[in-house]
Design goal:
The chain is an alpha/beta fold. Helices cover 35% and strands 15% of the residues. The radius of gyration is 16 Å and the shape is globular.
Length: 214
């Protein structure tokens, strides 16, 4: 098992020499290697337990340096959710919801806050925590379609790293908030806003979908 801190641009003022935007894509590409990027303490606990249970492959747990709050219901959902690679961490209100926001790590908190704000405008979205691609790929198609229904084309992924690989999950019509260039030297909060990892930018991207709102 390997444990790595990862904050991408949130590492701040060291700039392009110390902003590992490509590491997630590189680790995900390794055969027989399981990568988990938890969103809160309960997902971290689940990741550790799954790493200890794994006897056929190494596991990498990619953590954030900043403090993150515990997300509602993850105490009950985290183990099975992380084990399956992705799960609905914050549900939509109706069966005819408008979009799906997919996020990993600290970005999940932003997605949930954006979901709350979008509800005020009668835009109903599902938030999916996606801690492990390789675990998700091992699930039956029925589970994949349950988490990411093929009928919902309005999908937005949010991750402070390379966009490589996300197109498969958001689809042709989906949008990706990512970083595909090495970074700048500035305080973390400045960089996070510069690269669009804000609640406001997530809301903007969702509203730019061709939404059918009742």
């Amino acid at each position: 098992m390997q444990q790595n801190p990862h904050d991408s641009i949130a590492l701040g003022e060291d700039g392009k020499t110390h902003q590992p935007i490509e590491h997630l894509a590189s680790l995900r590409a390794m055969p027989n290697f399981s990568l988990i990027r938890p969103a809160d303490g309960n997902e971290v606990n689940a990741a550790w337990q799954l790493a200890m249970e794994a006897d056929t492959h190494p596991t990498g747990i990619v953590l954030s340096r900043q403090s993150l709050p515990i997300i509602k219901n993850t105490k009950e959902k985290a183990y099975n959710g992380v084990k399956k690679g992705a799960y609905i961490i914050s549900e939509e209100e109706t069966k005819d919801f408008n979009a799906i926001i997919i996020a990993t790590g600290s970005e999940v908190h932003l997605a949930i806050e954006a979901q709350k704000r979008l509800k005020e405008d009668e835009i109903d979205v599902r938030v999916v925590s996606f801690p492990s691609w390789d675990k998700f790929e091992k699930q039956p198609q029925s589970y994949k379609d349950f988490i990411l229904p093929p009928s919902i084309k309005n999908r937005l992924s949010v991750e402070m790293g390379s966009s490589q690989g996300w197109r498969e999950y958001v689809g042709e019509k989906g949008k990706i908030i990512s970083i595909d260039t090495f970074g700048s030297s500035a305080p973390a909060n400045v960089l996070i806003e510069k690269y669009g990892f804000t609640v406001e930018n997530i809301i903007k991207h969702v509203k730019n979908f061709n939404l059918k709102i009742k």
